[in-house]
Amino acid sequence: MKYTIHGFQQEKLMEFGLDNDDALILAVIKEMYSNKKMEYQIIDGERFIWIDQGYLLEQIPIIGARSSLKRRLKKLDEMKILERRVLFIKDGVKGKFSYINITSKLDELSEYTPWLKMNQGLGKNEPRVGSKWPNKDTPIIDNNINISKDILSATSINQIINEWNSLGLQKIISVNAGTKRYKSLKARIKDYGLEKVLQAIKNVNESKFLKGENNRNWTISFDWLLNPNNFIKLLEGNYKDKENGGKSNGSFRQDFGQSKEPGYDYDYDEIINGL
């Protein structure tokens, strides 16, 4: 069986009595918690982020009803994998606001082996051969622990795949690590962020030309979109139809002439080759 799921060890998930939906919820919350832009409160010396359950459910609708999400969050809180606090006022507004902190128990589910686990069986005061015990104020630098920085979030990839497939063009099933497509996608997310990548894909819907209405029957591909030269033009709206606020970028023009439908006069070689 696949060793990990959503970045967590299946063996540990089953040991804790958790399933795929629990793992998905934890993966999304973990990703949100790592985002410094999230609104938070310091409670009892710990950082708690504000999570609106309605918004959370929008990110993972596969979970089902809101009652199912609430039930699972309550279970994860009772298991002390998450720590939940409810505040009744936020920004001067009265209400019921849920704040969540992730605990060290979450590390036990992760796909790397924590420091303490690596040193099981050693004497209390004996470091590994060739190693030193880390100072409590010094971050542990370990290839296994930091590997997540080099791996795209499964949640982010799924969002991008779903957005692309909604265009009704050539369908994408997966983006596999190590491939040219994966590296290109990772670079675009690093340069622009997830939301900008999603916006660039949305912009395809506003271009008849990119969706095949041209005299060569050429259609945009996912890999073409990820090309850095193409991506920035698409993000800036250069390929939008004129009625959608399109603008010329010097490599093509839209010619309406006497026709009711727009006629296009593009430098196809330049566009197709991503120049």
From TrEMBL:
Region (Disordered) location: 245-264
Protein name per Swiss-Prot or TrEMBL: Phage protein
Source organism: Clostridium perfringens E str. JGS1987
Lineage of source species: Bacteria, Bacillati, Bacillota, Clostridia, Eubacteriales
